[in-house]
Amino acid sequence: MSKLLVSPSPHIHSKVSTKSLMLDVVIALIPAVICSVVFYGWQELLVLGVSVASCVLLEWAITKYMLKQPSTIGDWSAVITGILLALNVPYTTPWWVIFIGAVVAIGVAKMTFGGLGQNIWNPALVGRVFLLVSFPTYMTTWNQPQGLFGVDAVSGPTPLGAIQEGLLQGASVQDLTAAYNYKDLLFANLGGSAGEVCALALLAGFVYLCCRKVIKPWITLSIFATVALTSLIFWSVDPTRFTDPLFNLLTGGLILGACFMATDYVTSPMSLWGGVIFGVGIGFLTMMIRYFGSYPEGVSFAILIMNSVVPLLNMWFKQKKFGRK
Amino acid sequence: MSKHTFSIGGVHPHDSKISRECAIQPLPIAPTVYISVAQHIGAPSVPCVAVGDKVKVGQVIAQPGGFVGAFIHSSVSGTVKSIAPRADLAGRPSTHIEIAVEGDEWVDTIDRSETLVTAIPDDPKAIIDKVRLGGVVGLGGATFPTHVKLSPPPGSKCERVIINGCECEPYLTSDFRTLLEKGEQVVVGAVLLQKAMGGVPCTIAIEENKPEAIAHIREVIAKLGYKDMDVMVMKMMYPQGGEKQLIDAVMHRQVGSGALPISVGAVVQNVATALAVYDAVQKNKPIVDNSVTVTGECFPKQANLLVRVGTPLQYIIDFLGGIPADAAKVISGGPMMGRAIANLQAATVKGTGALLFLTEKQTRRAPETNCIRCGKCADACPMGLEPFLLNKLSKAQDWDACEANAAQDCIECGCCLYSCPAQIPLLDNIRVGKGAVLGAIRARAAAAKAAAEAAKK
Predict the structure, then answer these.
(1) pTM recorded for the entire structure
(2) Number of structural domains in chain A
(3) ipTM value
(4) What is the DSSP letter of B75?
(5) Which B residues 5-24 touch A at CB under 8 Å?
(6) pLDDT per position as a tens digit, B312-357
(7) Distance from CA of B226 to the nearest CA of A (A)
(8) Are residues A89 and A171 in the same domain?
(9) Alpha-carbon torsion A4, A5, A11, A12, what sign?
(10) Which of A10, A147, A209, B320 measures 20 to 30 Å from B253, CA to CA?
(11) Has residue A129 been placed in a domain?
C-alpha cells in the first residue's frame, strides 16, 4: 500500500452492472433461441447469426468511426437487439433484409439518439416494423416449421394472418380457429416468426428475469390481463367475428413482445403504476389493431406507440416521497 | 418471528460481519493521545486546561462551546503537552489537546466496578444533567449531543424511546458485541432514557442477523423485570438504522422534511449511546473510551477494541499487525456511509465506531456509462426520491428544481449509487445539489428573520 484512496461514500457497489443485466436477458432468451433453431433448422441459425453480428458490428463501427467514442458493444445490449430482431422475422428472410433491419434498429433507432439509454423506441421493434412496411412479402410469408432436420418447406400464413384473411372471405372465427390446437400454440408448432412459436420457452425466460429481479412482472402481466379482458368482452359479444382470449394470448408474438420488448428498461416507465398504465395501453392497442386494423398483428405497433408516452408516464407517476404529502 | 422494516426503498448488501465472534478487548493505552475539541455536532468545545497541567482519566479538559455542545474529558492520565491544530481524519486541521500518558489514574468519583446499578434516579432533569456532564453524544455516527436530544422543544412530547441496535451497515459488529457483553447496562441505559423522557415505553430494535443479541436482550429484560420495554426483530435491510427509517419501521410514522424525530413523538438512541448514558448516570463515568470494530477481508486480524478517545489510528493498526499490503482504502465507519481516511496519524473521536480496510478491487468504481433508465436508484432510495433526476438537475445546477424534487431530503445513505448498474456517481452529484438547496433554505430563513426584525422597528 503506497497511498490511501480517498473518495466519497458509498465505498462498495452492488455486483449488478449494465453488462450483468444484459447478460441475464441474453440467458433468458436462450430457451427461445434453442427452441426456434430446433423447430426451424439451420436457416434460423443463419438469421440469428446475421442479425446479432450485424447489430454488434454496426454499433462498433458507429461508435468508432462516426461518434469517435469508446465502443459500447461490451454492454451486450446490441446482442439483445440482434436476437430480438431475429426472433421477430421469419426464418426465410434473406440476409440482406435482416442487415437492413439491423441498420434501422441500431443505426437509426438506437445510436442516432445517443446509444443505450437514450432511445425513445425499442430498437429491435423499430427495425422489425421498418422491415414489415418495406418488405411485406418477405415479412408476411411464413413457412410451417420443419424442424432441425426437416426438408419440405410448406408455405402458409400465421394463425392471425389466416384468420384475418378468412374473415375477409366471409368465414366465421370459430371455423377458422378450429384449425388450431392450443397445445400446438403453446409448444410451438405453427407458422410465425421464430419468437412467436414457442410460448413456453419465452415464458421460462420471463420467469428467469423476474426471479433474478432484472425486471418486475407488472408490465407483462398487465398486458396479458388487458389482452385477455378486451378479447373476452369482444368474443362474448360476437364469437363469429372476434377471436377468443386464449387464442389472442398465444399468437402473434404477444408473449415475446410482453416479456422481452415491453419490459426493455430504456423504453418503459420506471414506476409501478406507470408500468401498469403502459401495459394496459399496449394490451388494449394490440387488440384494437388485431380486431379493426389492417395488419393482422398489433403488438409491435402497440409497444412503439406506448413507448412514445413513457416520458409523460415517468413525469406523472412519481414515487411517494418519505414524510411528504 | 415477525419482521419489521421501513416502507420505502432500501438495499440489501452482503452483511460481511466477519468480526462478529471477536469479543471486545481493551486496547493498551497509547503513549500519547490527541483529543479533538470538535468531535460532535455543534460548537467546538473550549479547552479548560493549560499546557503542563496534570490530568486524570475522566477529568473535564474542554467545556461546551454553546447549548449544542459537549463536555470533553481526558481519556488518559498524564500531562497536557500542547493545545494546537492537528490534522483530523480528513486531513483538515482542528484544535487537539495532546496528552502524554503517565500511568492510568482515574478521577475518584468514577465507579469502575462491574456491579450493575439498577436504581433509577427519580428526577428526569438529574438524568439529563448527568448525561450532559458525561459528555455523551450520539455514537451511531451523527455525534449529536445527547442531552440536547433529550430536551425536546416546548410543545413537543415524546411517546416512545427507540434504542437503535440495527447496525445495518455491513462489517460493523461493535453494537452487536456491546449488546451481548453489556446487555444489562444497555437495558438499564434504556430505562434511564425512558425515565428522562417522562416514563414512555421503549423499543429496542435489532436486525434478524443478530439472533444471539435478540435472545440475550429479551432474557435481560425478563430477568430485570422491565414491563414497558420490548425487543423488535427487524428485517435485514439497509439503511434500517437511519433515524427516520427506524421510526417509520417501529412506529409507522414518517418524520416530515426538515423536521426532527420528536415531531412524531420519537427519540432514537444508538446502543452504544445507551451504554454511555448508563455509564454517565449510574457510574459517573464520562465518555473516555468506545468500542471500535477493526475489520476487512484483507486485514489479518478482526477485532473489536475498547479504545480510549484520542488514540492515533496508526497505533491501533500497529497493535493489530500493521496495514496489509493490498489495502487501498481505510474507512472510518461502515462501507456505505463511512468516511475514507486520508490521514492515519489522526486520532479517534467519540464517534469512531469502526476502521474498515478495503482492497482496491472491493472499492474500485467502474467507469460511468449511460443511464439505462432501469429505475433501480428510485426503487432503492429510502426517502422516495428520484436520484436519476436529482443527478441531472444537480449537474445542470438547477437548484430550484433540485429543491422542488426534494434534494434536501437526501440522507446520503448511498443506496442509489450502490445499486446503479451504470455506475453513475449519483450521490456525489446529489450532495452538491443538496448543499446548494440547504444553503438557499438557510439564506431565505435568515432573510425572513431580518425582514421580521426590520418590520418591528
Answers:
(1) 0.90
(2) 2
(3) 0.89
(4) S
(5) 8, 11, 13
(6) 999 999 999 988 889 999 999 999 999 999 999 999 999 999 999 9
(7) 33
(8) no
(9) negative
(10) A10
(11) yes
